[in-house]
Amino acid sequence: MKKITLITFILIALTFSVPFLSVQGSLTVGDEFEFEVKKAYGNFNYVESAVTVTGQTDKFRVGDTAIDKGDKIDVQVDAIGTSSVDYSIFDASAVLLADISSSSLLFGLSLLYYSVYPFLMLGISSASVQDLDVSKGVSLGDAFYVAPPSIVWTDVYDSFNDDTNWDSLFSGFDNDEGNVTTDVTATWYDSGATIAFEIDVSGRYEVAAESTGLGIIHSLRFDYNVTNYVLLGYDMFTLISGDYQGINTNFAMTVQVTESSYTRKIGAPFLLIGLASILTVSVMVLLRKRSK
Q: N or C of the chain: less Cβ packing under 10 Å?
């Protein structure tokens, strides 16, 4: 499979980060936002670069701390630069969990990196993201809670919906043996007050010469308030099962965190999750049979 290179990511990220304006919108230093962990589950068994990752968790990761599903965290804005924002993350007892400094470029890169997060973890794609440590729980890192207010959302919308910006990121799935469908969309809601970024990948990835056969279902969505640049919620649901380069592989992860007052459902419906589970198990069984 073709690897996603860091240079490719940087080139694409530049389309997300230019132009930037030195404006601050309604975000101000001292603003505080509360988030709730709605979902947190992971079950992993895979090998990447000779390192085996295995185990199960129902914890959510903030910084290097594992917290429980249902817990709440507070995010406080500490500083706003011309193209950056600094904020701190606290637990419900006001214990500091993480200090974050996010630039416009970092935010754009993170949206791209984490759109293919499972494939980075498995080694199917190449880039640098936060390591997955089962003992500390699951999350997509801490760089998403507040976007730098220099972001121009209309530019991000246009770039996200431009298929050519994603061609190289998913080119590895273009082979004659498998059948993987990818869909990337940005959508406005609430009369333009909310923007959602969504990535869906599903199908069968096979490379017989590498003893690879994987059933893949991956869905990731971010919602943002475009006025105050704050995350309204993100949801990721992933099931990947089969054999990767001859090794029994499983990557199952569901995680959701939302701003406490946000009521829009951003997760996959229960029926869809059930069907996805059945589909992945069926594909896994078929792949096992074919590999024998």
A: C
Q: Give, as one character, the DSSP assignment of residue 176.
A: S
CB 169 within 8 A of CB 119: no
Alpha-carbon distance of 256 to 161, in angstroms, equals 23
First vs last C-alpha separation in the chain: 22
Residues in the chain: 292
Judge whether 89 and 224 are in contact, CB under 8 Å.
Answer: no
pLDDT tens digits, one per residue of 164-203? 877 766 777 777 687 888 889 999 999 999 999 999 999 9
Burial of 220 (0-12, 13-18, 19+ CB in 10 A): buried
Q: Smallest Cα–Cα separation from 290: which of 216, 181, 173, 207?
A: 207
Most confidently predicted of 48-57, 68-77, 151-160: 68-77
Rounded CA gap, 275 and 38, in Å? 21
Print burial letters for 142-173: b (CB count within 10 Å at least 16), e (below 16). Answer: bbbbbbbbbbbbebbbebbeeeebbeebbebb
Residue with tokens 């990121």: 169
Over residues 75-83, the mean pLDDT reads 96
* Long-range CB contacts (within 8 A, 24+) of 282-290: 282/215, 283/204, 283/215, 283/241, 283/242, 284/215, 284/241, 284/242, 287/204, 287/206, 287/213, 287/214, 287/215, 287/242, 287/243, 288/242, 288/243, 290/213
**For residues 41 and 66, is the Cβ–Cβ distance under 8 A?**
no
- Inform me whether the pLDDT recorded for 243 exceeds 70: yes
Give yes or no for a contact between 186 and 156, defined as CB atoms under 8 angstroms apart.
yes
Q: In this structure, which amino acid lies at residue 4?
A: I
User: Tokens representing 216?
Assistant: 């893949």
